[in-house]
Amino acid sequence: MASQQQFMDYVEQHQEDFIDRLRRAVAIPSVSSDPNHRPDVFRMGEFLIDELKALGASVETRDPGKQDFHGQLTLDLPPVVLATVGDDPAKKTILVYGHYDVQPALKEDGWTTDPFVLVEDDKQRLIGRGSSDDKGPVLGWINVVEAHKKLGLEMPVNLKFCLEGMEESGSEGLEAIIEDEADKYFKDVDAVCISDNYWLGTTKPCLTYGLRGVSYFHLTVKGPAADLHSGVFGGTIHEPMTDLFALMSKLVQPDGKILVPGIYDQVRPVTSEEEATYQSIAFDLSDLQSAVGNKTNIHEDAISVLQHRWRFPSLSLHGVEGAFYNPGDKTVVPAQVVGKFSIRTVPDMEPKKITELVVKYVTDEFNKLNSKNTMVIKCSHDGNHWLSSPNHPNYVAAAKAVETVFNVKPDLTREGGSIPVTLCFQDALKKNVLLLPMGRGDDGAHSINEKLDRSNYVQGIKLLGVYLHEVSDVDLENKQ
Amino acid sequence: MASQQQFMDYVEQHQEDFIDRLRRAVAIPSVSSDPNHRPDVFRMGEFLIDELKALGASVETRDPGKQDFHGQLTLDLPPVVLATVGDDPAKKTILVYGHYDVQPALKEDGWTTDPFVLVEDDKQRLIGRGSSDDKGPVLGWINVVEAHKKLGLEMPVNLKFCLEGMEESGSEGLEAIIEDEADKYFKDVDAVCISDNYWLGTTKPCLTYGLRGVSYFHLTVKGPAADLHSGVFGGTIHEPMTDLFALMSKLVQPDGKILVPGIYDQVRPVTSEEEATYQSIAFDLSDLQSAVGNKTNIHEDAISVLQHRWRFPSLSLHGVEGAFYNPGDKTVVPAQVVGKFSIRTVPDMEPKKITELVVKYVTDEFNKLNSKNTMVIKCSHDGNHWLSSPNHPNYVAAAKAVETVFNVKPDLTREGGSIPVTLCFQDALKKNVLLLPMGRGDDGAHSINEKLDRSNYVQGIKLLGVYLHEVSDVDLENKQ
Ligand SMILES: [Zn+2]
Ligand SMILES: [Zn+2]
Ligand SMILES: [Zn+2]
Ligand SMILES: [Zn+2]
Asked: Could you confirm whether the keyword Amino-acid biosynthesis appears in this record (chains A, B) (predicted)?
């Protein structure tokens, strides 16, 4: 406990140094989606390797190989950085994951300041691309190591890093490396902690123990051999767009209810125990409405909103490939159109079963249309949902750390989106995975003026360090 | 009759000269939609002015003004060329219309030969951009004048030309000029003839006496203030795409039946007299199927196909603006989407009434959705249908000319698309308008390898000339 306090004091006193480190990291525009910035992504990897080595970590890299960039060019993928701080067999080993690439950012997009120059505004917000997603958290772990080293404090656990440079672009090659290293580099890992998401709101820390999955579908309707003119052919042939709209309109109701039979049968019922967990969560309907920008919410109470975001499935129509999409008027009859939609999945929905249900339903509905066009429905991609337990010792340790640093019990949250690496670590390592966010819900991770509040950075560094202390004390084999 | 035969013989004997004139015209890439080719459009106008003047025509031009090219640049519009051959008050005055601009064409699009070099293949097809649409027909009229001049034959009518250079790009400025000149340059016009469409098939000439109109609609659904992530928001807000697909699926059935109440009440019934006119028309179901490339036809008999193309309304869904349209997967919830659809209209549908019916129906259906999104439905553009009569003396004269040149009675056809200038001339001049095509239905006017069969060009020149002789003999005031 004394060492925890010492650590926290050090962080409080040296926050300018840590902000300076973040400033140097933000200055490297490691935009993974832009081939022109690919050298910067590599440079950012080097920056982290140097920082880690300077703190005595042993560092290795793994090469994810080459990227086929939209069939236009071949790019080297930035390395997965593996680093180890400590290898005491008497200690637990905690694996932390983060990413060192960032979303694109241009001043012209509407940034108030240069996105790659970290500035602090009068509300003590550190503004810059990657400040919150995910350079702040990644440096958070490094700052923890530095603080211990400078204080001459022993690290409470062995710490392993897994840092990738392609998260914002699909984490190409990462899964294979994790699976490959599961019984090698990651062999002694006892638990995993990922800091790459956000508080639910702006005031209260949270631990995140669940994510929805996503199954993405392509519904193709093929009619004439080529696009036709609606004047000449309208009324004489089966138009693929008519069939597509008929089918896609039968997938989901305006109130969000999914119309594919059998989907809800697979959804785990809400227990009274689960219901109770929503009561204390800091979330209002107004939080949703301000995020959305108006009052187009379906549900009128905050708990329903959270449940429909976290633990009920949803179906969204995304668009149509092959149809007219520009402004203006065009009288084309598209020859082939591909409708895109996805289903957010929750326990206990199984991706394979979902695809079966969707394919059967859409095929049945298509047959009812009596169209001479042809229809193909396919799942283009599925990622399973993920659910851990806030009662797991890894979470209990994190909750204690939150109480120590913030003097409040964390909200126990789930998220509506997916973070595929979470499930990948859990499946490959068979260890508990904890999502422990540093930033706030309004950080604007993928938007203009991305920020990390100074207090979130400083308290976040404390949180990550204290978590390592707390997790060293729990029995991780006692899986509740 | 002797002079007609003399004229036809001359055309037969001088066909190489006429093809050479077409070759020189095709060599000018007068693509009106491409700013880089705008000078070529002007050059093509000059070419026609020179040819007309050389034949003794008096030529004037009208300037349609400037074009705002997608808000990016301002382009000069090519002139409307007005020319007069003869001003004998004892003769009728016939106005002919054509356009000297062409569709874009690139060798890379799949042309077998350079699109701007006219070549004749082994099936005696003259291949080149604009050969059929509409340089062949425009030169057809000029060739008629030349033949008479060379033969020392008097022209049977006074001939006026109205030639524009923007037809393939919306005829910007033309309507105002026609209206303005109605009681000036066009004051003495007795009838109008337009040669800018095609035979129904490939074997039999036709006269075209009807066109469908088109009313184009934009259906906008607006939800959240910005695009959202379906993981975070799916299931909690009213998604504009869901509402849009619900509404657009209620517009038309897969078998082409329009679901907007009241539309069919306005459609003029098929009389037995009209029904009879379809019997002799050279058109098979296989003609539709080969145009479409497969058997996705709704109707199983040729007459139903023609009626649904020509004289029944149709509704086509064209696309969605604001949604995801690229290949691949994207989990966006679009904030605002605009569905595009159009209705092909026929007698006695009135555009204003159609818009009223559509707006009422879509609004009613949207209200049933109980969505908190907002919806706006608007007619972005409407052009009325057009219907003349094959019994009008102008058509009787043309039918006689077809019999003289082709030894067959022409098919009496309508078309499913619209040619707005037709209605514009009829409304402005209050004179009969005849559509007298030169090319075949398979000329590929807007496709690669556009062609005009040598025989269509040569017989077409004869047809235009003989028509002028025939129309000089009928009583155009006797409007059947
Ligand atoms: Zn991230
Ligand atoms: Zn991110
Ligand atoms: Zn044309
Ligand atoms: Zn055209």
From this structure: no
